[in-house]
Predict the 3D structure of the following.
Amino acid sequence: MSEAMAPTAPVPLPDPDSEEFWAGCKRGELRMQRCTGCSRMRYYPRPMCPHCQSMQSDWVTVSGRGTIYSFVVCHPPVLPAFAEKTPYAVLVVELEEDSNLRMVGGLLDHPVDEIEIGLPVEVAFEPLTDEITLPQWRVAKPS
Amino acid sequence: MLKNATAIVGVGQVEFSKNLGRPERTAACEAIGAALDDAGLSPADVDGLVSFTMENTSEVEITRNLGIENLSFFSQVGYGGGGGCGTLLHAAMAIAQGVCSTVVCWRARNRSSGGRPWAQTGNRVAGDFQFYLPFGLLRPADQVAMLARRHMYEYGTTCEQLGSVAVTFRQHAQRNPAALMQKPMTLDDYMNARFISEPLRLFDCCLETDGALAVVLTRAERARDLKQKPAYVMGAAQSTGPEHVVMANYHKPNFLETPSVYAARDLFAMAGVTPADVDCAQFYDAFTPLVLFSLEEYGFCKPGESGPFVEAGNLAWPNGSLPCNTSGGSLSEAYVHGMNLIIEGVRQIRGTSTCQVENAQLSLVTSGAGVPTSAVLLASEA
């Protein structure tokens, strides 16, 4: 297969609301949008706070620690870009800072038959393209 | 008032197929023509059309083919399989308000020969998609499996319980000559099938079908004089719920809640009945877990009790307490964004189902629960 034909995974297309999220991932920081009116964080990023309707927000770096809230293990058929990874896991992770902040992400370097809800995980930044780095997850080492 | 102001007076469909061999537009015209024949009406009676935003055939293509002089009402409902019963709500509102008198709702989709939408995911993904597709959560099966896993964790729901839904609906399909899946299926067959997205296996997933279906609605007073026994629209509702993300709806405070709980509240309030009054139900079953969620959210089970409820045989015709998806549903009859569920709901009121619930007076139909949704209650008496 020529390089032009190589299957490519879907690459996030940042927009004005998500630009800082993706820029943070590239720097190795997990960034969350925070309302400057009521101080609540929100995900996905968006222009208005759903709690107080403020249009003002800033960004904070969160710990990148959380727990597995739910997960699936994907088997074929999948997109060609994911075919070699099957069976692979995708998680919903609940962030330690706020139980209402949940993120979808992949799980790196862990057997798919040893995943459990409640397992502590930490963010692992995985470059996808020159521009985009994905926030994936690894099982946290016992502290 | 919307309650009982309108009725479904005609239904029509083309054959279900893996490859229909003709364009969606052609099938749409055939299904609409069949529905009007069934009602004893002609295109000259039609002044409203409602379909899905995902429908590829436009309203004006329909009017050009059927020779409809003018539409005084036309609308489209969004969010794919969540929209089916919503088309009836839009039609019923427009008729009840006097904007138009007779509306056709239709869906034509070559979802089998036309390919899988997820397999056509582009190289760049924008909007909400940027936050879940790049991680490989690509397919509707993956997105629903995420909710199913958590339901299992919180309530002890099992794969066998999901399997009992698939097996039961297959049994119903075997009585329905129009259903695509006639082959018997046991729970062992279900359990031995390959995983698609754990915890979901192959037979947790609906069929991939080419098909087209249409229904005709008109005012209740006129319905009484037409050819068929009317199925009165006793209630209809749409809902989104909070913080909705289409298919990856994981960010509202209650992870397991779907929009259905809001549609259920408004539907039963409008109709003035309770779940105990419902004789049979057609739950949107693109994936088996959606049936469990709907049983709980439409009030037939308490949260967490749907697994034991289905395992005890309550969905099975004829002896279950709530015969469900009596044509075989999306799992075993056909998957056409739930329009076949609506037509089966009508058949139950007419008394013409191949799994006919004796003296069915109140028939519930729901649309997709993983997306902004809708539901209707159809009644034999206004």
Observations:
- Residues 1-6 of chain A have pLDDT under 50 and may be disordered.
- The CA atoms of residues 108 and 138 of chain A lie 5 Å apart.
- The helical segments of chain A are 19-27, 80-83.
- The two ends of chain A are 45 Å apart (CA to CA).
